[in-house]
């Protein structure tokens, strides 16, 4: 369930990143259109400047007669210079916007790479979790089978014991808890009882030499 929730969150994040990428592409298209318009304006300004240069040349030739129009011409030149400055500022703004878009695209690429890395990690975790879940299921099935086998064997033992006792082939004899020498191999015992049973089976320093007890 946690993996599914995590996968949903990642899917939503991926959709958000794709939407953002589309917006960036739209913004880049808009900037390109603006660049084209600015280039057209720059060409128009160059054409105007060329035309004005021709007019200035003509006015220089008629400077004596057209002295009164000099002030207007200077004002027109100042206006053109201001427009050129504005155009330069627009170009700088466009370049700044282009750099910003480029930076956003780089950030998006980094985020996409991080997302892909996280997705790979989550996919590996999901595979590990599925493998663990499969092992748990196999373990549970094995334990159920083992329990069923133990019950079946226990029933068979009980049936054999009852039949042997009924036929007189086996005689049940009571053995006190302190004399159950097999307990030393099957459970944890107090020190005194452990030492007594060890002596009963003839064990010294972990080595069995002679069996002296009885197992029933």
Report on this model:
The chain has helices at residues 2-61, 70-167, 183-186, 191-200, and strands at residues 203-204, 207-208. It is mainly α and 216 residues long. It folds into two domains: 2-136; 177-208, no CATH class. The protein has a two-stranded antiparallel ribbon with strand order 1-2. The protein is rod-shaped. The two termini are 53 Å apart. Residues 39-49 have a biased composition (Basic and acidic residues). Its main location: nucleus.
Please outline what is shown here.
With 216 residues, the protein is an all-alpha fold.
What are the key terms here?
216 residues; mainly alpha; 2 domains; two-stranded antiparallel ribbon; 4 helices; rod-shaped; Protein CROWDED NUCLEI 2; nucleus
